[in-house]
Design a protein that fits this description.
The protein is α/β, with parallel strands linked by helices. The chain is globular and about 50 Å long. Strands 3-2-4-1-5-6 form a 6-stranded mixed beta sheet. 39% of the residues lie in helices and 14% in strands. 40% of the residues are buried. Strand 5 and strand 6 form a beta hairpin. The protein has one domain: Phosphoglycerate mutase-like (Rossmann fold, 3-Layer(aba) Sandwich). The protein contains 7 helices and 6 strands; from the N terminus they run βααβαβαααβαββ. Helix 6 crosses helix 7. GO terms for molecular function: phosphoglycerate mutase activity.
């Protein structure tokens, strides 16, 4: 058996609460988001894991979730690497728009395609599809995160719905069609134990995924 990797989506942000497309914008956690991160921390403490290193994005909602978890398990000073490769997908021209307003302007079906499809980016030169997000997440995972896990380290990754969906797609061997239906709950740790060949030996969800969106 190789190491263990825990993936956690950040807790609710102020823009999640307002139903806004967020992407690379940088709102903070809400009180509920802080509670979700604390609940994730308690689940990991009960699980009994201690990490060797943590990774997060450069966006405050993920960074703060990561720190709340580390504080909650008694590892406040753990080495943490912040990299924009783990940022949420860039929502382009949709960033900052209310999702209901976007549906009124472009139609329910088109907005759903932008949100959930694998390879259709939202409007705007910098808009990223899940495929585009994966194009920066996957190399970073392969070169920076996975080698540590294969050396037997225990690694925490606190990031975002779509950057983590890209990782889970590879780990769970989901097709481009299957990944469109994948939703990750906020603040719920997913514990992966990997085989020496980097395939998944086991996956355990420490909490309730019914709140996934």
């Amino acid at each position: 058996m190789s190491g263990t990797m825990v993936l956690v989506r950040h807790g609710q942000s102020e823009w999640n609460k307002k139903n806004l497309f967020t992407g690379w914008k940088d709102p903070d956690l809400t009180e509920l988001g802080i509670e979700e991160a604390e609940t994730g921390a308690k689940a990991l403490k009960d699980y009994g894991i201690k990490f060797d290193i943590a990774f997060t994005s450069v966006l405050v909602r993920a960074e703060k979730t990561c720190q709340i978890i580390l504080d909650g398990i008694g590892q406040s000073d753990l080495e943490t690497i912040h990299d924009q490769a783990l940022n949420e997908r860039n929502y382009g021209d949709l960033a900052g728009l209310n999702k209901d307003d976007a549906r009124a302007k472009w139609g329910e079906e088109q907005v759903h395609i932008w949100r959930r499809s694998y390879d259709v980016p939202p409007p705007g030169d910098d808009g990223e599809s899940l495929k585009d997000t994966g194009a920066r997440v996957w190399p970073y995972y392969m070169t920076d995160i996975l080698p540590r896990v294969l050396r037997g380290q225990k690694v925490l990754v606190a990031a975002h719905g779509n950057s983590l969906r890209a990782m889970v797609m590879i780990l769970d061997r989901l097709s481009t069609q299957e990944v469109t239906g994948l939703n990750l709950a906020t603040g719920v740790p997913m514990v992966y134990k990997l085989n020496p060949d980097s395939t998944v030996a086991s996956k355990e969800v420490l909490g309730d995924m019914s709140g996934a969106h």
